[in-house]
Amino acid sequence: MSALNPTPNPRVGFVSLGCPKALVDSERILTQLRVEGYDIVQTYDDADVVVANTCGFIDSAVAESLDAIGEALAENGRVIVTGCLGKRADVIRQAHPDVLAISGPADYASVMTAVHAALPPRHDPFADLLPRRDDGIGIKLTPKHYAYLKISEGCNHRCSFCIIPSMRGDLVSRPVDDVLREAEKLVMGGVRELLVVSQDTSAYGVDVRYAEREWRGRAYQTRMKSLCEGLSQLGVWSRLHYVYPYPHVDDVIPLMAEGKVLPYLDIPFQHASPRVLRLMKRPGAVEKTLERVQNWRRLCPDITLRSTFIVGFPGETEAEFEELLDFLDEAQLDRVGAFAYSPVEGAAANDLPDPVREEVKQERLARFMERQAEISAARLEAKVGTVQRCLVDSVDGELAIARSKADAPEIDGVVQIQNGEAMGLRAGQFVDVEILGSDDHDLYGEARPPGADPRTTPLPVLAQA
């Protein structure tokens, strides 16, 4: 083939499902594919092979993953499966015996081996002499201005409703200097918000005994608080997700009050009945939990608290469900997600007695969400008349769609800026917004010119590449 018509690069299609932790896995696989000379394509027709990164945590996720694999097989015919559902290869093979290979979560080497077998990389004797470009950031599946920062893999807990440890193994923490260097490169590449994710962020470092590592000439412990102190040096938003309610979570609240990390905690309480929590194998000191919530708000009045709960857990009585509603009334959490309990293959909770009837689960879920909707709406309404620092995600006609410090992407609400186009706003820009209205989920307001509100302190200047 002539130099004017070189052999095309092998082409890979990619399907990414599941949580932000799985999304980070997808980004790393895609980056390695690109480094090795594969082209990433957007359609099944254009792909020589398709990689599907799956989720397998709950039944609905398993069904979605199997459907995605089936669609890829029907449209392309050559499919490599990885991710959490890959730990249940028998389920995949039973539904789709023609998949080329199966591997588990974060098993990047196995994915690349399968890709090499199905679609060998093109050998170019001239290009192969050149060093591969690797800027330390790689391919991102999020918008340019925010990124997920995964700090560990696996989990040491054995919650009775969860099978994540059987899929992803026990806790393995990344060295803190590795995490901080990645964060630094992301910021230099244009990221304005770092979303810290793991299966259990508050357990970060326990497996390595909080080993110290050096970054920018200073020693940092491999520990959640020390990580937050390091991230605060980068001059961008840092948001903590999946924080298990250990007592040492209290240590990061002063950092939030000082503006070193966003005043936001995503902390899954799961229930409020001590007996149900024991059945879940979760912390059960509900009164202490309420005291801690009150203390967090005393130390950091602007803190946003997000949580998740399970209703209809096996054995949950009506009285225990009412305890959960009472907890909502007292805790006044800002954002809440809830799920009706669903059996997960391999979970210990499947063997518990007294399962709750499906119609009762759904009725309780509806009552739960109705109660929380009132709380969330009231807390949003209390922000009307305030000025909120926001990060613009997109511009849609006259509106700019942004998020405040209280809003994580995809799971929380947004701030609709009515004069976004008129103010010339763009994605990735910080702006102060006067809040003029609210509903059950979102805020509405107008951007203020720079310097219009002297009470708002601008973020530090970002380091330049």
Short overview:
This protein is of the alpha/beta class and 465 residues long. Helix content is 30%, strand content 21%.
Give an account of the 3D structure.
With 465 residues, the protein is of the alpha/beta class. Helices cover 30% and strands 21% of the residues. The strands form six sheets. The chain has a five-stranded parallel beta sheet, sandwiched between helices. Strands 16-17-18-20-19 form a five-stranded mixed β-barrel. α1 (20-35) links the parallel β1 and β2 (39-41).
Per-chain topology:
Layout: E1 11-16, H1 20-35, E2 39-41, E3 49-54, H2 59-75, E4 79-83, H3 89-95, E5 101-102, H4 108-118, E6 146-150, E7 152-153, H5 164-168, E8 172-173, H6 176-188, E9 193-197, E10 212-215, E11 218-221, H7 224-231, E12 237-240, H8 253-257, E13 264-266, H9 274-280, H10 286-299, E14 304-311, H11 318-331, E15 335-340, H12 358-381, E16 387-396, E17 399-404, E18 415-417, E19 430-438, E20 443-447
Parallel strand pairs: 1-2, 1-3, 3-4, 4-5, 6-9, 9-12, 13-14, 14-15, 18-20
Antiparallel strand pairs: 7-8, 10-11, 16-17, 16-19, 17-18, 19-20
